[in-house]
Amino acid sequence: MADRIRCLDIMEATGFIEKRIPANNTTLDKINHLVDEFILFVRDRKAQQEAQGLFRPWDYNSRYTAQIHINAGFLEVGPYAAFRYHRDALQCFGYGDKGHHQSGSWRVPETIVKAIGLSGDVMVWFPRLYKAGEWDNSLSIDGDLITEKSLNSTRNYRETWCYRIVMAHSRDELNRILYRFLGVFTQDEQLSSEGVNVFKRVDTRIKVYTAQK
């Protein structure tokens, strides 16, 4: 159930459309009919995206890397804004060719903060949007609010970051871990309280650091 809720949360925030074909208590003819309908749906969606100049063919080697976003000059919430590793997401913000990054956040260097049009202290945040360890985090249905609840009072803190670039921990259809860009967030002081920090989304698109092309 928790995995299903997380899936719905991410779908709401990124605009994914999920289609399921039931295989229980049905006939083969019915399944074939639903498969045919799904194929038509996919073809129609592809035609629409091609007409709008939005279609991107599948390329496994670059699908989850930073390079496509660096080439575009920006990162935007949607089905293509996902990364396999922390390092891939951080390379959009000047991380370079360093090894894998493990912690739940990373400070964006001041020079790069200015280059991408932000100001103050900025982090890239990799939250788990569910109860895990000493935190219980959740995403609002519209994707505009993240609520972070501390389950250990000794972990309470006062927010000092001006902006958080959020890369949420999620999983793909094969249960592989991904980090999805959900937007740029900042603390909502009016909604926050002791032990509960609420972050509101202020942008679904952000410039990336292109000097590394």
From TrEMBL:
Pfam families: SRA. InterPro entries: PvuRts1I-like_SRA. Residues 82-208 form the PvuRts1 I-like SET and RING associated domain. It comes from the Bacteria. This is PvuRts1 I-like SET and RING associated domain-containing protein.
